[in-house]
Specification:
Number of helices: 7
Structural class: alpha+beta
Strand content: 15-25%
Shape: globular
Helix content: 25-40%
Radius of gyration: 19 Å
Number of strands: 17
Largest sheet: 6 strands, mixed
Order of helices and strands: EEEEEEHEEEHEEEEHHEHEHEEH
Length: 346
């Protein structure tokens, strides 16, 4: 049984830690690999990334596997959350062995952040090591294959997508070969997820099966969003993050190709993408031992295609499950608050 989430990739678990209220609107999400780690790669396309340990994922470098990936709010400050995950790993002897004792390990925990500073009202409210530890403990406590909470949780708590509230979304599929591919996205985009002509989500227009909002509903939504944009006080500093994973047995170079092609799914659902004030980053994980067919040198193409499609679908899920937020820093309606699939006002 699948749950249409990243956790359908066997061995992966997801944990969120969320902070809302008292000036806070932020959080951290941890993707926990099975013990022994997962092959990992990364592709960074945004002009303003905030990352940690991404150089270790270069196929030319030593590290082959990572124990977890951290996605966090708090901009560069929030990368401190990875320290809490590292401490949790060290206590369990998980990481790259660097000495003769079981405790002689250095956990490699790549991390990337979104910009959500001050969105709850307090610029100094941001994730720290304690929040990272809370998120990894939540991941470890979850059951294998558990559903993943979506919307305004974890790293998606303070996310926005243009003038709309953003959040976390996830999706998965099983290929004809039996290989599973999954994606988890933190949608926090400077660009828009909504087609200005119709009010439909770009990611849903691609399917050709979307019920377009009624014209009067779309016009009312545009007026509301224009009013909010006119009163906005802050520049659009953002970043969309994703983790794409498969149970196929991939090399680091193959995983890096998956990470790169997955950005196509981001660009289909968010326009424009990869701007100078985005830090758009995609991690790819190979967390299984299903071999690709040796007789087909193009077998990776099916995974590449699915990965991009799943990133688009996960962004749609993030927008569909997000809830509106009003704080001292501003108001961000949700897509569902402005539209529904039948165009009826909400």
């Amino acid at each position: 049984m699948t749950v249409d989430a990243l956790t359908d990739v066997m061995g992966l678990r997801v944990g969120h830690a969320t902070r809302i209220g008292d000036g806070r609107l932020t959080g951290t999400t941890v993707v926990l690999a099975p013990e022994g780690g997962a092959v990992a790669a990364v592709d960074v396309r945004g002009g303003g990334p905030g990352t940690k340990e991404t150089d270790a994922l270069d196929p030319r470098n030593l590290v082959q596997r990572v124990e977890a990936v951290v996605l966090t709010g708090g901009s560069a400050y929030g990368l401190d959350s990875a320290s809490g995950v590292m401490a949790w790993m060290e206590e369990r002897g998980r990481g790259v062995r660097v000495g003769p004792e079981p405790t002689h390990v250095v956990p490699v925990v790549p991390a990337a952040c979104i910009f959500d500073l001050g969105r709850g009202g307090d610029f100094s409210a941001r994730p720290d090591a304690a929040l990272g530890r809370e998120a990894v403990e939540a991941a470890a406590a979850s059951a294998p294959g558990a559903p993943v909470p979506e919307g305004c949780v974890g790293a998606g708590t303070g996310a926005v997508a243009g003038p709309l509230k953003g959040g976390v979304g996830t999706a998965s599929t099983v290929l004809d070969s039996g290989i599973t591919v999954g994606a988890l996205v933190v949608c926090n985009a400077a660009g828009s997820a909504v087609d200005p002509e119709t009010g439909a989500l770009y990611g849903e227009l691609l399917t050709g099966r979307v019920d377009l909002p009624a014209r009067e509903v779309h016009k009312a939504a545009q007026r509301r969003l224009a009013d909010l944009a006119a009163s906005a006080q802050r520049p659009p500093l953002n970043t969309t993050l994703a983790v794409v994973a498969t149970d196929a047995d991939l090399s680091k170079a193959q995983a890096q190709k998956v990470a790169g092609v997955s950005h196509d799914g981001l660009a289909r659902a968010l326009r424009p993408a990869h701007l100078l004030h985005d830090g758009d980053t995609v991690f790819a994980l190979s967390a299984g031992d299903r071999p690709l067919p040796q007789t087909n040198p193009l077998a990776l193409n099916d995974i590449l295609t699915a990965a991009a499609d799943l990133v688009t679908r996960a962004i749609v899920r993030a927008l569909r499950t997000a809830t509106p937020a009003t704080t001292p820093a501003g108001t961000w309606p949700s897509y569902e608050q402005l539209y529904d699939t039948h165009g009826a006002p909400r």
